[in-house]
Amino acid sequence: MGQANHRVLVIGAGIVGLSCALQAQRNGHRVTVIDPRGFAGGASHGNAGVLAVSECVPIGTPEILRQVPSLLFGKDSPLTLRWTYAPFMVNWLCRFARACSPSKVGRSMDALATLLAGSYAAHEELATLAGCLDQIRQRGWTKAFETDSAFKSAQVDFDRMRSHGVSCEYLDKEAFAAKEPNLTPIFRHAIVQTDCAQIVDPAIYTNSFGAEFLRRGGEFIRAEVNALDYRNGTVRGALTKTDRYEADVYVVAAGAWSRKLAADAGSRIPLDTERGYHVVLSSGVDAMATAPVLWAEHSIVM
User: 30 pairs with which residues across the strands?
Assistant: First the structure.
């Protein structure tokens, strides 16, 4: 998009879509965003808001592959697979297994580390533009472990992170309890990653991006794109149930709904979904954790 004044259609009004929209506007393009749920209507509304610049280790590793049987059948496992859906995931699971080879993990880490290196500065830049820089707090985040075995198993990933320059500061039980006195003292080990930050309220943050996008003359359409018209190697239009939208450039940023649209454009990405939940507890700030805490055994961020 080097040439200015292209028509850009962004499909998806979460943090990724709106970041793309703002950046395209700054480069002189005419931008429309389309989403059936409005700004921050999906996962960008409810999450822990961690700017996890430390997370250069992919989900698929040789260690996680060996743990799959226990994760699938463990009583309190954070992983549950609906078996009626399993036949539809065979291809995805095979590709996941291949991606867990040491060589592919290494290449993935190099790519992730490169992307993450500039992500915090990019957030600051757009948050300043949108007037919501106060939503970013440099708090770091902590991974806490109840058991010695879980902490020992995690060491290989922390070693991988350290090899890519990620700060990993160890806290024993007493030090972690002193840092987070409001949590029940069940955690025996913790790793603090001080390079990370937190968005205080992801919904406010994302909506601020949307408001700035509109203030700069952007157009928002509340509709769902069901298909892309793709002919002769080019996307010709985005189709809803009732309308057709044409642009020079199309950005697919629809999160879990992106796979079908990407396939329409000739890119069969191995994307599947996971179901996430969040609970908001209303309490005084003094009763909360001082920074996001991952309860490692249960994959819950507090």
Answer: 7
Q: How many residues does the chain have?
A: 302
**HEC-encoded secondary structure of the chain:** CCCCCCEEEEECCCHHHHHHHHHHHHCCCEEEEECCCCCCCCCCCCCCCEECCCCCCCCCCHHHHHHHHHHHHCCCCCCCCCCCCHHHHHHHHHHHHHHCCHHHHHHHHHHHHHHHHCHHHHHHHHHHHHCCHHHEECCCEEEEECCHHHHHHHHHHHHHHHHCCCCCEEEEHHHHHHHCCCCCCCCCEEEEECCCEEECCHHHHHHHHHHHHHHCCCEEECCCCCEEEEECCEEEEEECCCCEECCCEEEECCHHHHHHHHHHCCCCCCCCCCCCCCCCCCCCHHHCCCCCEEEHHHCEEC
Mean pLDDT of the chain: 92
Closest CA to 7 of 29, 35, 34: 29
C-alpha span between 285 and 54 (Å, rounded): 26
Q: Give the whole-angstrom CA distance, residue 178 versus residue 289.
A: 11
pLDDT score at 90? 85
Alpha carbon 150 to chain centroid distance?
A: 24
pLDDT band at 107 (very low <50, low <70, confident <90, very high): very high
What per-residue confidence (pLDDT) applies to 285? 63
d(CA 260, CA 169): 42
Domains of the chain, by residue range, sit at 141-194+276-302
